[in-house]
């Protein structure tokens, strides 16, 4: 596993928090909360916990209410929750499971049982996340794929709409890539795609920024919450970084090496506008860049 998985322990009794923490710290990164309000804040924080151990009986907001709120929030509805309880009644267990708890840890704690139950769930969580990650990663270049981009774009579009902030998108096409494959072979073409993807990711790598393979020789870049001029500068830096790779391309009409054309748009989402319109404008600019000689950036005014 890459990195330690994270567990949030929520219990109003300090003794229980410390005891569970001592049991799990050797294998996991552990965070502590002493009430429901703290639990919700911690669950929404970045990075989020992979698993929450949640006490049922707490003053104020009890575990059932915490779980309800976690499940109603799109930011936390996916986090598995195991209840901590001293109650052995079947009705109480059924209530928790009906609300979405994945399991119970009973008090008084039995160390071996707690570790085993947590380990089993963490193993499943890791496997599930690996499958999700693989579904969102392009197998050739190792960067996000179109599915991941569409998901991120939808999230950033809604956020930009709420905050009335700028959202920039750039569409990228490798110039005369069919001719490159015809001349040097698809193995060389695959290697070129990998190097170009790596060059782009090294530049557009700040929080929220996303470089994805859109399909074939097309890439797309998501640049949230920056000024138009900065988005254009990033696009130019990316274009130049690919140029600097110096990948020989004798059959290109743009340059004797591999180059890219970039079309972009920066906009504040309007209530009646759509993501499709944003992408269409970026694609129109990409067409203009190619019509104007390629190996350049064209941005919507």
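Sequence proposed for the structure above (301 residues):
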């Amino acid at each position: 596993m890459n990195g330690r998985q994270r567990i949030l322990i929520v219990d109003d009794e300090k003794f229980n928090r410390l005891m569970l923490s001592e049991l799990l710290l050797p294998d996991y990164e552990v965070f502590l909360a002493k009430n429901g309000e703290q639990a919700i804040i911690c669950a929404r924080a970045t990075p989020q916990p992979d698993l929450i151990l949640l006490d049922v009986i707490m003053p104020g907001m009890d575990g059932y209410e915490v779980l309800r709120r976690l499940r109603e929030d799109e930011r936390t509805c996916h986090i598995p929750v195991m209840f901590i309880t001293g109650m052995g009644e079947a009705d109480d267990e059924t209530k928790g499971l009906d609300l979405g708890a994945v399991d119970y840890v009973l008090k008084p704690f039995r160390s071996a049982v707690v570790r085993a139950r947590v380990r089993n769930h963490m193993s499943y969580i890791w496997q599930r996340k690996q499958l999700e990650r693989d579904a969102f990663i392009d197998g050739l270049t190792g960067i996000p794929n179109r599915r991941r981009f569409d998901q991120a774009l939808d999230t950033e579009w809604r956020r930009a709409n709420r905050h009335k902030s700028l959202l920039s998108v750039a569409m990228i096409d490798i110039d005369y890539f069919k001719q490159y494959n015809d001349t040097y072979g698809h193995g060389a073409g695959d290697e070129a795609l990998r190097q170009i993807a790596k060059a782009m990711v090294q530049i557009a790598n700040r929080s929220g920024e996303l470089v994805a393979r859109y399909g074939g020789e097309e890439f797309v870049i998501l640049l949230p919450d920056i000024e138009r001029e900065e988005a254009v500068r990033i696009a130019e830096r990316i274009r130049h970084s690919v140029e600097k790779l110096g990948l020989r391309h004798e059959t290109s009409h743009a340059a004797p090496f591999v180059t890219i054309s970039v079309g972009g748009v920066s906009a504040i989402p309007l209530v009646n506008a759509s993501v499709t319109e944003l992408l269409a404008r970026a694609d129109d600019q990409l067409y203009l860049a190619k019509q104007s000689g390629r190996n350049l950036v064209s941005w919507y005014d």
